[in-house]
Amino acid sequence: MRPILHYTAKNTWLNDPNGLVWHQGVYHLFYQNNPFDNVWGNMSWGHATSTDLLHWTEHPVAIACNEEEDVFSGSIVVDHGNTSGFGTAEEPALVAIYTSAFKEGSVHQGTQAQSLAFSTDAGMTWSKYAGNPVLGRGSAHFRDPRCSATRDRPVPAGSWWRWRPSTSRLCFTARPTSRTGNT
Q: Is 16 known to be catalytic?
């Protein structure tokens, strides 16, 4: 039996909520999920939608693990201004920042770094950004990024905050929109 007022996956393991966004009249819930079993492992992002926060429709895996990485916690924004360049102003992309937990045998094995994924079809399919990881510091414990977006433009129009790691903290700077190089 499943709870009435708390979302649960039908028959798989779930953990951290990774984003609740309102997009095109629908709530989208993303959460850490093992799509293959009801125990921890194969970390990916599950996806469910609702129009009333009571009745949920479970969808296929949003952001899947692979042989290189598990997909740990993060967050999602609706890019209304298309500052990422992944969507359009008329059809904004959903943009996720998540923790890549690199597996044994991968180029970055044993480390965690931040990566991006985006959807241009209201969260039904996702593409991992080709330039991943976008932020790393060679640490085995560097996870759970949180991002937010407002229409108030807390950074100059057409810009994103850039996070750069240091030995003791993250430094934040506004940079022009660019998906090339190191921005």
A: yes
